[in-house]
Amino acid sequence: MTNQGKAALVIVDLQNDFCPPDGALAVPGGRDIAPAINKLLDLPFALNIATRDFHPRDHVSFASQHTEKQPFTSSHTITNPENPQETQETILWPDHCVQDTSGCELISELDTSELGLVVDKGQDKRVESYSAFGPPFRSPRVSMSQLADTLRHAGITHVFVCGLAWDFCVKATAIDAAKEGFTTFAIHDASRGIDRSAKGPAATREEMEKHGVRVIGLESKEFD
Ligand code: VGL
Ligand code: ZN
């Protein structure tokens, strides 16, 4: 898979609520990537991880928690609860991936038998966290996932990211992986985005590449 080093596969948010036809925040074509991801799971990655968006009912990213705000179109400024100087501009969403609902479960088409770990994220109701590594605020009391430490303890050097949504959680997770020092690949055709407009996917690709993420396809020689 990689000539040297140890590789992990990170499957982002392949959950019922992100998949048609019934998902609360369905990503177009979201379910269609399951076969490709199952094939990736047959490869000899040292560690296979699935992430789940895992929100409390009253999560700040839900439009329902704000008066007169519409999902998808309204933005909202989130202030770091531990440091009011720091803010985060974010989109408000329909309620999705609420803990202990079927919407937050991994889709049944995903072969979970080869998963070594499931990382839940977005549990801190006060902040948004697209990245599986944690929210963008680095304050001691804003909860981070243990993903970076877990990967390092497992001796992982290379991280391959795919899943949903290309332009939100896949992007943020891949960029954080690169920032954490892992050689990072984002697999575009094993991912789907919310914004399918002409420029959307390419703009996301550019942003990832700016941070050192290598965008590849399933036919890449990395998988030989
Ligand atoms: C996501 C929007 C809100 C994602 C999560 O998984 O990309 N997008 N929460
Ligand atoms: Zn979310």
UniProtKB/TrEMBL annotation:
What UniProt keywords are attached to this protein's entry?
Hydrolase, Metal-binding, Pyridine nucleotide biosynthesis
Residue ranges constituting the Isochorismatase-like domain according to the UniProt record: 7-218
Whether Coiled coil counts among this entry's keywords is no
What would be an example GO MF term here? Answer: metal ion binding
GO BP annotations of the record are: pyridine nucleotide biosynthetic process
Cross-referenced Gene3D superfamilies: Isochorismatase-like
Q: Where is this region: Disordered?
A: 61-87
Pfam short name (any one) = Isochorismatase
Q: What is its EC number?
A: 3.5.1.19
Record's signal peptide: none
Q: Does the keyword Lipid metabolism apply?
A: no
Query: Which spans does this entry mark as compositional bias, Polar residues?
Result: 62-87
Pathway connected to this protein: Cofactor biosynthesis; nicotinate biosynthesis; nicotinate from nicotinamide: step 1/1
Family membership = Belongs to the isochorismatase family.
Provide the protein name.
nicotinamidase
What broad taxonomic lineage does this protein's source fall under?
Eukaryota, Fungi, Dikarya, Ascomycota, Pezizomycotina
